[in-house]
Each structure stands twice: as structure tokens, then as C-alpha cells.
Design a protein that fits this description.
By secondary structure, this protein is an all-alpha fold. It has 7 helices and no strands. It folds into 2 domains: 88 residues; 69 residues, no CATH class. The longest helix has 35 residues.
Amino acid sequence: MLDYWRGKLDGIKSATTEIIRGVSHHYENERKKLPENVSDTIDKMRAQTENVKTAKEKCGAYDIWLWNLGSAIGEACWQDGHDAGQRWTEPQKGKIRIDLSVEELMQVSWLAHCGFQHCMNDQFDGFENKQNAEKAQVAIGRLEFHIPREMRGDDPHAQSFNRQTMIWGRWP
């Protein structure tokens, strides 16, 4: 029976070493420190399992600490994913993000298109130069791009082409 527990203990130690090496390698490649809760759990696991006398008791101690290690690694992975998600959902520097329903987006893009037409009117000189008009045309196009295809109509690029034609007509 003693050989059984020693064999099991050797397998647990080998698996634990590989898990720790794999996690450490992941963080070393990213040039990050191992998360504090993971390194603390590893240190506690080593300290607790060294004090145990028999192979059977060491296997039990490893079982408990491997559960704690798995929990610490899972928590660290979740936190990394959460942080990455927060970075992804935050707007880029110098930008803002606004949540609109499809209906609101359609209304805003239509109003923007009408405003563009009004600014291009000869009686109202809304754009100083061709570059400003083109920037406005691109911004409106970005709004229109996010309207789902089924809501855009037959030719989703018609309004964009219409605005571009107005720019070409004004500044040939």
C-alpha cells in the first residue's frame, strides 16, 4: 500500500509542477508578474505539503491545495479577461461611445444627412473647405455603416454617394 501512495504522490507532484510551469510560462511570455494570489497559493501549498510526514497525508494535502491553486488560477484568468474586456469596450483615446437603438441611429444618421445637404446649399456656407465637408461625409458614413443591412434600404451607399457628389460639384 505504501508504493501506491508514493506513486500517487509522485504523479501529483509531477502534475503540479507542470501546471505551475505552464502558468508561469504564460505570464513570462507576456512579461507580467505571476498574480499575487496565485504565487501566494503556490508558496502556501509548498509550505503545507513539506510539513506532512506520510505519503498518504501528503496526497490529501495536495488535493486540498490543488483545489485552491485551481481556484486562484481561475480567478486570475477571469480578472485578465475582465480587464481585457473593459479595455475593449472603452472608447479609444479622444473618442466617445454612445449606445443608441437602431431606430435612434437611423434618425440621427438621417438628420446628419439632411444637415449635410443644408450645409452644402449655396445660400448657407456651412463648410469652410472641401476637407471639412469630406470629414463630415465620412462621419455620417460611419453612422450609416452601423445600421443593420436589412434596415438600410435597397442601396445602402446611395446617400453617401449623394453627399460625395455634392462635394465634387462644389469643389471640382
